[in-house]
Amino acid sequence: MHVGKRLNIIATGSAERWPSLPDVPTIAESLPGFRAVTWYAIVAPPGTPAEIADQISRDVAAAVKDLETVDSIKSKLQMDPIGSTNIEAAKLFEDDTKLWSKVIEQAKISID
Known about the structure:
With 112 residues, the protein is mostly helical. The protein has two domains: 1-37, no CATH class; 38-112, no CATH class. The chain is built from three helices and two strands; from the N terminus they run ββααα. It has helices at residues 50-63, 67-77, 86-106, and strands at 2-3, 7-8. A two-stranded antiparallel sheet has the order 1-2. Strand 1 (2-3) and strand 2 form a beta hairpin. The longest helix is centred in the last third of the chain and has 21 residues, at 86-106.
């Protein structure tokens, strides 16, 4: 996909093609298993009472189910709002930590 005069989008890092960019393939289509996505989360400090954390989770989940909110996020930010549970978010954090730790180790990346 050609954007402006100097930018061509050749692929996305998501697992599936973006609905707004249906002609742009994913990297995974050429390199099976590849996934590199950006995600955002709302988290509370350690020690936050479970009932408060659960209420925040429910409120955020309800917000991202609101069609006007979803449409706005998708059109303005090109993001797919998910709204997950605390357990699902923790699993995502764990999975991404494992994935990128392996990449960092194999590439011998270090902080100097």
